[in-house]
Fold this sequence. Notes:
- By secondary structure, this protein is an alpha+beta fold.
- It has 3 domains: 4-46; 69-292, TIM Barrel; 299-413, Sandwich (Immunoglobulin-like).
- It has 8 helices and 20 strands.
- The strands form 3 sheets. Strands 1, 2, 3, 9, 10, 13, 15, 16, 18, 19 and 20 form an 11-stranded mixed beta sheet that branches. It has a 5-stranded mixed beta sheet with strand order 4-5-6-7-8.
- Helix 1 runs antiparallel to helix 2 (22-40).
- It starts with a helix and ends in a 6-residue tail after the last strand.
- Residues 10-40 have low confidence and may be disordered.
- Bound molecules: zinc ion (2 copies).
- Residues 140, 147, 186-187, 192 line the site of one zinc ion (ZN).
- Residues 76, 78, 140, 239 line the site of one zinc ion.
Amino acid sequence: MISHELLKNMILKNTRKIAPFKGIIYTGLLAIMACCTSSSVTAQSGHVNPWAPVEVGPLPPIASLNDGMWLKGDLHVHSIHSKDASNNSVAKIISFSKSVGMDYLGITDHDNHVNGDVAHNTWADPEFKSDSVLLLYSAEWTTTRGHGNAFSAKPYDHQRLYDVRDQRDVVVGAVKKELGIHLSANHPSGKDHFGFSYDMVESIEVWNSAIWSKNANAIMIWDDMLSSGRKLTGRGGSDSHHGTPDSPDKATKNSYQAKANYVGTPTTWVFAKARTSQAVIDALTNGRVSVSANPYAPRVEFYADLDQDGKMDMMMGDNAKATGKPVRFRVQLTGNTSPDSTYKVSVVKNGDPFGTFKATGKTPVVEFTDAPATLGRTYYRVVVEGPPTAYPQVPGSMALSGNMVGLSNPIYFNFDPNF
Ligand SMILES: [Zn+2]
Ligand SMILES: [Zn+2]
């Protein structure tokens, strides 16, 4: 029997695709639903699950693994346009970001502090400019039901998103779609968790602030969303609010945070096709993303060789059809690795531990083989632990992140792009 809930979800899913006619269609479908739910009572014994795994149709080709560049940044930073921030002017954040080699930045001020008018506050700040750091048009959508970050390569009408913040998800989702923005669930567990449908977001903040240990529940939610078929990118964000005071008399009770949690704790890496804000957001959407403890920590790269010819065919974020043959996977740490240290690579398959491996040397590499199921979805993602990398500008962050080095996004098999 098809449950009432399931039918409602089907309707909402289809309604999203045909927004202009949704009123009519929704009413019509409600009538059909009433009919189906009553007649299905008698058809109970012949139940067929309409969502049972079927062979997935042709998938889009996998993009080049070479045609692009790794760019790093922070996707969650508050400036003085947030009322709960201190000593953190836009210019200070940008110059700091530049000094630690950031390629892009999302300054995400609380929109409720300016009644939604981010465009005439953060984005209109004369300091909101840079000749080297790509600045995203972004804001923290701060609502009664929780927080999310909006990202765009160009200015958009954020006021509209703010104005529907307490409306039903179908209303919010339609506005979000019209604005053409990337929406991301913030700190999804705990205070101000994202209390909206995850069908509205392209990514989720799986690593909020330098304090890695408090993200366990966010990772659990991510695995649940992935396991249910949602191809959702995991990203980081420092959520830093407080900069170093220019003089001792400007210090606030929170100024100590500048040395413990600031721009880059953690750092989100994206494999972008070009050095543009749009390419950063595209990569964030397609999942070619990994997160590292800070800008100097090694970057986690995760690849798969589908035909075992020794040449990698896909990377994290990519989705391929499973052939039934074994796939060779490679995890690689790039950058400031510690040659004398051992890194622990934990592989997660469909939300469950798959195995742990050890990696050493200047370019630590781990390879493993597995055959993803030919029918139904499979995903693999990795978490890397090891010695902390020094971040002299934010020295207190090392202890807070502990042995967490970085995490990858999943490599996907048989995920339905039209889910
Ligand atoms: Zn928040
Ligand atoms: Zn925030």
